[in-house]
Give the backbone structure.
Amino acid sequence: MNLFSDIRGAVIEALAAMTVAGQLPEGLDMTAVAVEPPRDPAHGDMATNAAMVLAKPAKLQPRAIAEALAARLSADPRIALAEVAGPGFLNLRLDPSVWQGVVRSALTEGADFGRSALGQGQKVNVEFVSANPTGPMHVGHTRGAVFGDALASLLDFAGYAVTREYYINDGGAQVEVLARSAFERYREANGLDPEIREGLYPGDYLIPVGEALKATYGTSLLDQPEAAWLQDVRDFAIERMMAMIREDLALLNVRMDVFASERAITASGRVEEAITTLRGMGLIYDGTLEPPKGKLPEDWEEREQTLFRSTAFGDDVDRPVQKSDGSWTYFAPDIAYHWDKISRGFDQLIDVLGADHGGYVKRLKAVVSALSNGKVPLDVKLIQLVKLFKNGEPFKMSKRAGTFVTLRDVVEQAGPDVTRFVMLTRKNDAALDFDFDKVLEQSKDNPVFYVQYAHARLCSVLRKAHEAGIAVADNDLAVADLSGLTHPAEQELARKIAEWPRLIEIAARNNEPHRLAFYLYELASVFHGLWNRGNEDPGLRFLQEDNPATSQTKIALARAAGVVISAGLGILGVDPAEEMR
RNA sequence: GGCCCCGUAGCUCAGGGGAUAGAGCGACCGCCUCCUAAGCGGUAGGUCGCAGGUUCGAAUCCUGCCGGGGCCGCCA
């Protein structure tokens, strides 16, 4: 159930009845009518802007509409009080039974409470990570991985059919560099001095690859010319790198449905196909580009290239797809890849990219718009940098100094739960500070801990109640008498729980999983607050020693909060701890 | 030069058309005979960068400017 959409339905129904009764003109657009939680709890449980939104088109005073609407809504048993306030808000106070209904829904629906039909089963492709298969993943990839995985889970929960996809850039020049680098390590494994020339990858992680090459090929490649071994060594090294990357993702509990290979897509003729399609639309032409403004590259030369008319879709300049020598630019496989995704029938595409790829957003959107006739929206989520700290001091990453912080370093130190939650405590387009010490702190300063602690406290209550012989299994609590949940502090928690389904839809609409992290923090805060009220007012304790029935009632509320915390953390990929150690 | 992101409390950040703008940290004052005080309550703290505009209503949308960061190439 989604209480907010239920009540909005009641408002829309009342407005329709007013139209029939001649109190409103016909044909009004109701899409802007919203039912939201008011900022100030004193304003009631929910508020609707209906009267203000409709006043102008209906040519009526907002207060007049609001009053007529209030009169109709008052007849709804769920609405205890409807009063007009401010410039025309209609504040609604809900009957306590409504909150009891929310708690019961959470208990009966369990992990599915809040699941939405918003997506209507639409096929969404979430492409994320897509780190080059040339080395281990670093912190930046970590954030992208967590974000993409959580977003995918969120969209799944919101009713989309989600595919998690990794695009392997195994077709460009950089994998040949990888091959040459690995070959040097292969020579090293055979007792020769490696020549890690400028431009090759110097990382130690290639040493085992060199050894593996030796194990497979012995000395047979040593005196061969590059042309003889390049392809085999490249494929061998890519496979090794991808195995390493898969392991890293597994450490973070990130899973992929599809690993798409640039080389496979290119080999299948998708590039030519996509370019031909674009050409058929008149979007490909031969021409020369203006030199870039600002600092002019030293070797700038005007040359004719094959260009994609991305300016037709709002890009700043047209983009080259083919070099002057006829070979494809790096952009061409990207076109083919997105064409491939469109061809696979996705209704929506999402690309999760590093913020340094911001300059490609327009051309990617242009391509997707062109190739799908504007039917498939592409949302590009840019992931800002992660700034690492240790003891409050910035922790500079440098490949040269050997302080290159990998995904594995982070996860091994902080653990997957902490890493994931912290990475989601900031909007994707805001830079994130990640302090190794703060993140491991077990106090309320650490949001992960704070949320997990709320859940652990609940579990503690459940254990104690169970020991006391009170039936606290979910199906027992779901049929408990909830009419005793009338205290304002208890209703505050129920109100927060009721926001969960609405939050899911807002977060999913905006592709913003960070909203879940913030919400869960708030929910935990309300839970801790109610818990502590029990110190002063024993009547608010969840466990009422001598009264199993009342205990069941109150524990049902606590457990409903726990259901949401558990589900929410589940979407973020964080384990809801049952006890803190 | 162009494009993108950011600018909200002393600090770190939510909120991104609705009412008197929120949270955490830091500061100050309180709360353990009691389900985990690893927690809770309260006080103080604001020109939502600046200036226009749209709107019944702008921190939120539009334009310009200021300040910070990022990107720009036949590289990937």
User: Anything to note?
Assistant: The longest strand of chain A covers residues 161-168. The mean pLDDT of chain A is 92. Residues 3-94 of chain A form a domain with the Gyrase A; domain 2 fold (CATH 3.30.1360.70). Residues 153 and 376 of chain A are 21 Å apart (CA to CA).
